[in-house]
Write a structure and sequence with these properties.
The longest helix is centred in the N-terminal third of the chain and has 4 residues, at 16-19. The chain has one helix spanning 16-19, and strands at residues 43-48, 53-57, 59-63, 77-80, 93-98, 101-106, 113-116, 122-124, 130-133, 138-141, 144-148. It is elongated, with a radius of gyration of 26 Å. The chain is 3% helix and 35% strand. The strands form two sheets. A six-stranded antiparallel β-sheet has the order 2-1-11-10-7-8, with no helix packed on it. A five-stranded mixed β-sheet has the order 4-3-5-6-9, with no helix packed on it. It is mainly β.
């Protein structure tokens, strides 16, 4: 073994039989997938304007033809609203669910977003402001709505 650099010791050739990684018994066992410190991922049930039910996990973009902005992470779900009257913006709002519950953010929509709480109070959503949406609250956007069922 020789080295081309003075003062540097050459590395002996590797013995493939000794250096090869071997699978041990522990690596052959199935490892269960754990999210959020052992708790299941947050979910919420949404009741849609047409009677359908949607299970919300992560984030969802809502609109006539919803799409993420350039450089924005892709949503977990897309909820396309069939709105020939165009009361709903292309990407009207983003819905999300986390450990604290459901939230939304109006995406600078033309006709805005209104959250109506169980007691009848209404929240007019400012563009890009994150709003918490409690259970049994409804969300109106354009001529459409959804309700957080839990």
């Amino acid at each position: 073994m020789t080295s081309s650099q003075p003062g540097v010791r050459p590395t002996p050739p590797l013995d493939d039989d000794v250096e090869r990684t071997r699978l041990g018994h522990a690596s052959r066992r199935a490892v269960p997938e754990v999210e959020h410190g052992g708790r299941p991922a947050p979910r919420a049930t949404l009741q849609l304007w047409d009677g359908r039910t949607l299970t919300l996990e992560g984030t969802a973009l809502v609109g006539r033809n919803p799409a993420a902005r350039d450089g924005e992470p892709a949503p977990d779900q897309l909820l396309q609203v069939p709105d020939p009257g165009r009361s709903v913006s292309k990407t009207h709002l983003v819905l999300g669910v986390d450990a604290d519950g459901v939230w939304l953010r109006d995406r600078n929509s033309t006709n805005g977003t209104v959250v109506t709480l169980g007691d009848g109070q209404q929240i007019l959503c400012a563009p890009e402001q994150k709003i918490r949406v409690p259970d049994r609250a409804s969300v109106a956007f354009g001529d459409f709505w959804l309700t957080v069922a839990g």
